[in-house]
Amino acid sequence: MQNLTALLLSLSILLATSHASVQDFCVADLTLPAGPAGYSCKSAANVTAADFVFTGLRKGGNTTNIISAAVTPAFDAQYPGLNGLGLSIARLDLAPGGVVPFHTHPGASELLLVVQGTLVGGFVSSFSNQVYVKKLVKGDLMVFPQGLLHFQINGGGTTTVAFASFGSANPGLQITDFALFANNLPSVLVEKTTFLDDAQVKKLKSVLGGSG
């Protein structure tokens, strides 16, 4: 009986503590740096309706670049009201021939919805390097599991628009090509780790802004 009483008391304290820690929201205070758990909360007295609205996805991004594509994120850094809520979204605009190269989101899975045009999406599994590729048309969805290398390509003749939702307010992004060739890692090390020759590595570094 004594043990049961102690257990019930512990549970009541735990539940009371958990309830006390719940808040409706934690709008990001962008004047402070983000930590592993996200941004600190803005003072409730300074929160406005504008913190919960984002208008940056109304227009397409500029696709005049090396990949003929634009990704417009609505993550916690751009959309403070998402902070701590475990979700976010981005707009993808791909001109004809445009590509979002192999990349990963270490913090979340991605669910992609095509709303205009067509694209080919694919990802590579980590346990067998199995490739999953599919052509998507307007209205189609494709999921890209967290942390796996994936890509999107517009092989059609018109601009493609898609929206990618994520299970994190900050899913993170690392584009493989830029990670390899847009840095100052000595070319000899890049060559050893990629099996590319010196001329190929230096050409890619030149195109993507790397050095070394």
TrEMBL record:
Key words of the record: Apoplast, Disulfide bond, Manganese, Metal-binding, Secreted, Signal
Keyword Secreted: yes
Localization (cell): Secreted, Extracellular space, Apoplast
Domain Cupin type-1: residue ranges: 55-202
Pfam families assigned to the protein according to its UniProt record, in alphabetical order: Cupin_1
A GO term for molecular function: manganese ion binding
Disulfide bonding pattern of the chain: 26-41
Gene3D superfamilies in UniProt: Jelly Rolls
Highest taxon of the lineage: Eukaryota
Any one of the GO CC terms: apoplast
Residues given in the record as Mn(2+) binding sites: 103, 105, 110, 150
InterPro entries, per the entry: Cupin_1 (IPR006045), Germin (IPR001929), Germin_Mn-BS (IPR019780), RmlC-like_jellyroll (IPR014710), RmlC_Cupin_sf (IPR011051)
Binding site for oxalate: 105, 110
Leader sequence segment: 1-20
Family matches, as PROSITE patterns: GERMIN
Family classification: Belongs to the germin family.
UniProt-recorded name of the protein: Germin-like protein
Organism of provenance: Salvia divinorum
Gene: ABP19A
